[in-house]
Amino acid sequence: MSDLTFRDAASDDIAAILSLSDAGRPAGVALAKSDASDPAYATAFERIAADPNNRLIVMEREGEVIGTLQITIIPGLTKGGLTRGLLENIHVKPDCRGQGLGSALVDWAIGECKAAGCGLVQLTSDKRRPDAHRFYGRLGFEATHEGFKLLL
């Protein structure tokens, strides 16, 4: 896997990141193709890039973006002031899956969380993605909590 590069995303990566996210939708979920020219995406990217507790990451091979995730560092008060790393929007290009690239991406992100002082890494995964759940379990993640969301 020495041919992989992990880096903070640039605004030029927005279309590739959206494409990976669209391709990662669970089976049966309607896909409304994301339009990278929508100014809302540039605004969201700038907000992430300006926040020192957030990193939007791309994984490249031979100059092609083939994976992405977002790392959020969350300072905590409980558990002795435990800092958490939150991994979100983890996606690998569909035709690149099954090659160990997702493991490489998550392992790299865990290393970044450790370097940031995190004592725990957590993530969420759509209930309709059983393959992703098995993948996270193989990486050592445990389904210890039930997640809830409220769209506003």
TrEMBL record:
Q: Which domain of life is it from?
A: Bacteria
Q: Where is the N-acetyltransferase domain?
A: 4-152
Q: From which lineage does this chain's organism come?
A: Bacteria, Pseudomonadati, Pseudomonadota, Alphaproteobacteria, Parvularculales
Q: Identify one Pfam family in the record.
A: Acetyltransf_1
The GO terms describing molecular function are: acyltransferase activity, transferring groups other than amino-acyl groups
User: What keywords tag this UniProt record?
Assistant: Acyltransferase, Transferase
Q: Does the keyword RNA-binding apply?
A: no
Name of the protein described by the UniProt record? GNAT family N-acetyltransferase
